UniProtKB/TrEMBL annotation:
Pfam (any one): Peptidase_S13
Family assignment from sequence similarity: Belongs to the peptidase S13 family.
The keyword Magnesium is annotated on this UniProt entry: no
Record's protein name: Peptidase S13
Source organism: Chryseobacterium taiwanense
Listed NCBIfam families: PBP4 (TIGR00666)
Key words of the record: Hydrolase, Signal
GO molecular function: serine-type carboxypeptidase activity
SUPFAM superfamilies hit by this protein: beta-lactamase/transpeptidase-like
Transmembrane segments: none
Length: 488
């Protein structure tokens, strides 16, 4: 906790000592005539100059925190801050460092690191084209084509360097040409046991965001407490494939759902990427003159699998690329897919519930300070997520010894330069703040690393809940709080 009294008396004495000088100078510089001629004249505050002269960066940081406690934007907010020295393992300065707060998308720090730790930086998802049966002398395949997925969250999206559906289909078509297949006398079977349970209970107190903007949560509102989530259901005549929408109780925006079950209950689901790929593939085959007699059909499990031959295999971008995209763009859908992937990797179960267990087990293994921790989803959309600033900085400090630390650090947005921090720290801190951002309605968070002017690396967490004013106003306060750390 910051201490300020020892600084105040010295500032007061020096400030009062300059009072007469100030008044004398002001009569010369600020006559009405001169002021009208130079409307943009801006002179430094003598008291501010004194503070910078006589106070150390650490003392300036503490004074900044003291100022923010009475600032109109933050004085009634719940917020906490800590800056930590990873070498000495000591707190440099802090405020409410043990207060559990909503972390918003800084939750992704936990999800993405768990994935790197368990899966490895070079992990890739595979989507394979295979066939069963025999190819006769006329190029007719008397058998089935199989598209075998593995839960690739980037499939067909162009995210993180992933290929588009069209590019993947082009590779598949080339594979069929190599095999001499000119007609398919069978079905196109989609086979993936991953992520089959798309409909599940949503996290408590989830924040709904508009479709195609951030992420439409997957699941049903059936078990959501109506006191927390009041849904307004209406028909949507704008789109043929999405027939209902509801209004977010937090973001006050329209959100689409695929199904309305009545009584205010709606259901959403993940886009079925393998199904879209398979149907697009079939259309391309037919247009290219390769007839397909059967249909596209899913087969999640196969008790008696046919003998099959590999035709073509598409590899996703590496996990390094996926984590980079996730953190730079704060991509909620990728974060939730990573949660499901680690769940499957450890539990053989693709549900988000298993993923949460795996993440929590991993955090326990790395001695995460679980006091005040509530991990409800992989992306940070739930307002029931909580964490303390001190837990975040100790966790981030522990990662500096991991072999994938550089990959992890590189994935974080850089102040004034990249990702979700491109419009913050455009002056002080430009290129020196490496941090994950988080934003919900009246929640703004920031956690990561700072490279100081002297070359030190410090770790910090700044979590602000229930602030007054606009998000831009609270971002300016965050920049002000962190500015003195650059001189530590």
């Amino acid at each position: 906790m910051v201490k300020f009294r020892k600084y105040i008396s010295g500032i007061t004495v020096l400030a009062s000592g300059l009072f007469l000088a100030q008044s004398t100078v002001s009569t010369v510089l600020f006559t009405p005539t001169y002021d009208s001629q130079k409307p943009n004249l801006s002179l430094p505050s003598p008291v501010a100059a004194i503070e910078k002269t006589i106070l150390s960066p650490k003392e300036l940081l503490d004074v900044n925190l003291n100022t923010m406690m009475t600032d109109p934007v933050l004085k009634n907010a719940s917020w906490g801050f800590v800056v930590f020295d990873p070498k000495t393992k000591k707190i440099i300065s802090s405020y409410n460092e043990n207060m559990p707060l909503v972390p918003a998308s800084t939750t992704k720090l936990l999800t993405t690191e768990t994935a790197l730790n368990l899966l490895g930086e070079n992990y890739r998802w595979m989507t394979q084209l295979e066939y069963s049966g025999q190819i006769d002398e006329n190029g007719v395949l008397n058998g089935n084509l199989y598209i075998v997925g593995s839960g690739d969250p980037s499939l067909g999206t162009n995210k993180a360097g992933a290929l588009s559906y069209r590019e993947i289909i082009t590779d598949f078509m080339s594979g069929l040409t190599r095999e001499g297949i000119k007609k398919v006398n069978g079905d196109i079977i989609i086979q993936t046991a991953l992520f089959k349970g798309n409909i599940s209970r949503l996290p408590e107190n989830v924040v709904w965001l508009e479709n195609n903007n951030y992420y439409l949560p997957v699941g049903t509102t059936r078990e959501i407490n109506p006191a927390n989530e009041k849904l307004i259901v209406k028909k949507n005549t704008l789109s043929a494939d999405k027939k209902f929408f509801y209004v977010s109780p937090y973001a006050n925006q329209m959100v689409y759902a695929e199904k309305y079950d009545g009584n205010g209950t709606l259901t959403t689901k993940l886009p079925d990427a393998p199904a879209y790929l398979a149907n697009s593939f079939r259309t391309t085959l037919v247009k290219s003159g390769i007839a397909v007699t059967g249909k596209v059909t899913p087969k999640m499990t196969d008790a008696e699998p046919e003998s099959r031959k590999l035709v073509s295999a598409y590899k996703s971008p590496t996990l390094t690329d996926i984590v980079y995209y996730t953190n730079q763009h704060s991509d909620n859908s990728l974060a939730e897919a990573l949660l499901r992937t680690v769940g499957f990797f450890r539990k053989g179960d693709q549900t988000s519930e298993s993923g949460k267990v795996v993440v929590k087990d991993h955090l326990k293994d790395v001695a995460f300070d679980a006091e005040g921790l509530n991990y409800m989803d992989g992306s940070g959309l739930s307002r029931s997520n909580t964490v303390t600033p001190i837990a975040q900085v100790k966790y981030l400090t522990s990662l500096m010894n991991q072999k994938y630390y550089q990959t992890y650090l590189t994935s974080l947005p850089i102040g004034g330069q990249s990702g979700t921090l491109k419009r913050m720290f455009n002056e002080a801190g430009n290129g020196q703040v490496f941090a994950k951002t988080g934003t919900l309605n009246k929640v703004k968070t920031l956690a990561g690393y700072i490279k100081t002017n002297s070359g030190r690396t410090l770790v910090f967490s700044l979590l602000v809940n229930n602030y007054a004013g606009s998000v831009d106003m609270v971002k300016k306060r965050m920049e002000k709080i962190l500015e003195p750390t650059l001189e530590l």
